[in-house]
Structures are given as structure tokens and as C-alpha cells.
Write a structure and sequence with these properties.
- With about 220 residues, this protein is of the alpha/beta class.
- The protein folds into two domains: about 120 residues, 3-Layer(aba) Sandwich (Rossmann fold); about 80 residues, putative n-type atp pyrophosphatase, domain 2 (Alpha-Beta Complex), CATH 3.90.1490.
- Helices cover about 30% and strands about 25% of the residues.
- Strands 3-2-1-4-5 form a five-stranded parallel β-sheet, with helices on both faces.
- Strand 2, helix 2 and strand 3 form a beta-alpha-beta unit.
- The protein is globular, with a radius of gyration of 17 Å.
- It starts with a strand and ends with a strand.
- The mean pLDDT is about 95.
């Protein structure tokens, strides 16, 4: 029996990574990573990650990567454009890392329905602490690449997600998975990775209340 070929909506961070692992465990064939990037910059819309880093992940995972340029006002148009191309290659579904925000699930399901593909949300309804626990049990290495500086101390930026950071989130009553953008991560190693991703950091930069890493790219 042929496996169903799917893409993963890829932010480069923990939620998309765990959703990919779970989709693979459920017997889906992960055929591509799909990231939406800013039209005016070569970085991801969600986490501001430069394309060279995303390409490193793709290479280490052995999974092709597609970067689709979009702007927020025409995001779904870009989504449909990318999915149309993937459908021609035999893809019939997409995997998404949403956990508990109803408006996000509604958007995903409606966009996938209009594009005539199936949507898979393997993390949906999970307890957020359980999401992090599973990642740590799998020995995933997750670099903290962005924080809300009004909520979290700058010392966490460039550190790795672990029990101390989780304790800090709980003590401040912050969403453990940062579902409202309190922080973002980059998966640098773990299951399916053939090698650890090397990340060269040259400093930090501020975007409003968010402090993000600034990278050296080759």
C-alpha cells in the first residue's frame, strides 16, 4: 500500500518539527518542507529565519525544501500557489503544527479545503507541557531564536530549550509552547537529522517587543 505523500508547513521550530515526527510515525510520507518567506527579505514569515539556515535543516533531514514568497495580505494566495505545484507532484495533504488556537485551525482547514488537499494536525489538543516533554524525551535540540523581551529575560536568547527555561515560563504563567509568540525556536538536532545544524550568531536585533538572533550566513 502506497503511503500518502504530504508536505510539512515548516517554521523550522519545535512545533513543526514534532508534527513532522508524529506524521512520519503515523505512516505518512514526508515529501517536502514548505516555508513561506517574506517577499522583501530572504527569511521566514513566522520566525525570521534566513533561508541558508532552513536549507541546512532540509539537507540534514534529507527532505526537500520549498520557500514560497508571500506578503501577509495575500498569504492564502501564496499558499494555494505552492500547494498547486505540490499536487502536480503527487502530494495530497499537508501537516501543520498547530496545538490549541481555534482561529489557526480554522484557517488551516479552510485553506486546505479550498486547495483540495487534506490537513493533518498531529499536535492538536495536546497539553503544551506534553509537547515539550515529548521533544525533550526525543533529545531534540531546540535553540531559542526569538523572545518577547517584555516577558522574558534576554539571557534566554541563544540558549537551548530545557527544564530551566520551561520552569521560567511556568513561573511567569507564559504559554509553555509560546503559542502567542512569546518565544520561537530552531530545531538544530534530533530524530531524522543526519547531523547537527551549525548556527553562527553575530548578535541580536529588535523588532518591536521581540528580540531575535542575528545570524552570519554564508
Amino acid at each position: 500500500m502506497l503511503k500518502e505523500k504530504v508536505f510539512v508547513s515548516w517554521s523550522g521550530g519545535k512545533d513543526s518539527y514534532l508534527s513532522m515526527l508524529k506524521a512520519a510515525e503515523q505512516g505518512l510520507e514526508i515529501g517536502s518542507l514548505l516555508t513561506f518567506i517574506r517577499e522583501d527579505q530572504a527569511c521566514s514569515m513566522s520566525h525570521g529565519l534566513p533561508l541558508p539556515l532552513l536549507h541546512k535543516q532540509s539537507k540534514a533531514l534529507g527532505i526537500p525544501h520549498i520557500a514560497e514568497p508571500v506578503v501577509w495580505k495575500s498569504y492564502e494566495k501564496g499558499f494555494r500557489r505552492a500547494v498547486t505545484g505540490l499536487k502536480r507532484q503527487g502530494f495530497s495533504g499537508g501537516v501543520f503544527g498547530d496545538i490549541n488556537l481555534p482561529e489557526h485551525r480554522q484557517w488551516v482547514e479552510q485553506a486546505c479545503c479550498r486547495a483540495d488537499i487534506k490537513s493533518y494536525l498531529p499536535l492538536w489538543g495536546m497539553d503544551e507541557e506534553a509537547v515539550l516533554a515529548q521533544l525533550l524525551e526525543k533529545k531534540a535540540e531546540l535553540l531559542i531564536v526569538a523572545i518577547r523581551s517584555d516577558l522574558l529575560a534576554e539571557k534566554w536568547l541563544g540558549d537551548y530549550l530545557g527544564q530551566e527555561f520551561i520552569h521560567e515560563l511556568k513561573s511567569k504563567d507564559i504559554s509553555p509552547c509560546g503559542e502567542r509568540g512569546e518565544y520561537h525556536t530552531l530545531a538544530v538536532y534530533g530524530p531524522l537529522f543526519s547531523e547537527r545544524i551549525e548556527v553562527k550568531i553575530k548578535g541580536t536585533r529588535r523588532i518591536g517587543k521581540v528580540l531575535v538572533l542575528d545570524y552570519e550566513t554564508e
